[in-house]
């Protein structure tokens, strides 16, 4: 078996470029977040470090590099050092299977080196298009890699020798695995429509119409589940816990802390890239096939839009309380994603079957809503009856003119 | 519920187009309030004589014991302030001062006044003692610098007659 060193070199170069782009993207994502959030809050963001504060991420990076690295005395040193690495690396490698652009026809850039017997530039420009690689189980790869990141968080919490960090880590990982189910199920929709797990094929199948039009429910479920996966507002209870008790990265400082931070933002960029590829047509757009690098421009433009929407969401909505977050994931997201899979499958098989399945789903949803409404109305009636009973009992029992015993009518009901 | 979500997003989106309320501090400064209590100043009369007569009522009034006053006698050949005494040493320890303004209230001649300067950072403890030459205002135009040589009997009254304070 002979290894084609040209291909290996190309992969290495493309992976290095991807990691570099992601790291720079992370740095400027923090800058963009501060500036855009400031814009939403009618103030200016950082504007002192460099023109318009453009070198702020560099200043932050240098500060974190020089910060003292503390390791708690009782911490398991090896795992303490390993946990941020386990969290960051899956974030970086998710983007490996996403196509960044179409196959471009630039013949000049295919270089044949007769001495080594290889041809450079083959991969980009002939085989896979602009992108690191492609796999025919790409979607499965993405889901499994996202699960490894959960492992890093639990280890971080556990190895900190701090019970609050441990609890924070467990809560965060519980949140992430709950929403991974909804994430996976919502991905099945576009998968079925395209007929392949390879993201390149899914992007190619969106030539006529983007999947957000055909699968709006799956798109919304995927976006929300992705936000919960990356611990991003309004699901950022693990981040906010630092204000309350502790979170999984309490005991971390300096470069290790910045690795966790990096993992979150790079995962944000990664899930935005996947959302764009699966639902917004990836690099597709008018004239993307003919003009050489326009596909890349469209891809990055759509990712920027998705990231802007994430920042907008963060500035608009308050955090979800942890129990509501879990209830939402299991009781709302999962059934909706499952229903979407059923409906899509039925639609792909047969029209009448599709209508029957849609009818069944509507009946079930209506039944659940009616049951909840009826139960709430019953509770309200019981409470009012109870209040009248105590009011009348108090009125007959006490003859005092101070009739403040009558319950105030406008008391808000606790949920 | 969806309508409320959209309303929420629209609210934040509209905020993007508002003018930012940030004041770029070292380049632009917000004007202070009218009776803002900043750094102290020892005032002078229009003819250049110092208002401070060294009575140390300010030192007595100061709750933080920040003011130190030593008085000396005025002569007509060397007159610093109207009346018999002037403050030969006047020091305020800015680390003790709480900027309450009691010294300003206690002063009978309206000599010590809290002005609007608030940028008072320093880097070593010794520079926190503000001496009289740091606190006294410059001679107003039309006045003479102190010590002045005056005719005897002209400036014997130490506390001026004050009309109703306008402020």
What does this structure look like?
- The complex is a heterodimer of chains A (415) and B (167).
- Chain A has 415 residues and is mostly helical.
- Chain A has one domain.
- Helix content of chain A is 68%, strand content 1%.
- Chain A is globular.
- Chain B has a domain at 32-135: Alpha-Beta Plaits.
- Helices cover 17% and strands 14% of the residues of chain B.
- In chain B, the strands form two sheets. Chain B has a three-stranded antiparallel sheet with strand order 2-3-5. A two-stranded antiparallel sheet of chain B has the order 1-4.
- Chain A binds chain B through residues 38-44, 47, 312, 315-317, and chain B through 8-9, 11-13, 15-16, 18-22, 24.
CATH fold annotation of one domain in chain B: Alpha-Beta Plaits
Cα gyration radius of chain A (Å)? 27 Å
**Spans where pLDDT lies below 50 across 5 or more residues of chain B:** none
Structural class determined from secondary elements of chain B: alpha+beta
Number of helices of chain A: 14
The H-and-E topology of chain A, N to C, reads as: HHHEEHHHHHHHHHHH
Termini separation of chain A (Å)?
Answer: 67 Å
Which second-level CATH architecture of one domain in chain B applies?
2-Layer Sandwich
What is the first-to-last residue Cα distance of chain B? Answer: 57 Å
Number of helices of chain B: 4
Identify the overall geometry of chain B: elongated
The major β-sheet of chain A equals: 2 strands, antiparallel
**Mean pLDDT score of chain B:** 89
Low-confidence stretches of chain A: 402-415
Beta-sheet strand percentage of chain B?
Answer: 5-15%
Chains forming the largest contact: A-B, 12 and 13 residues
Helix content of chain B: 10-25%
How many independent structural domains of chain A?
A: 1
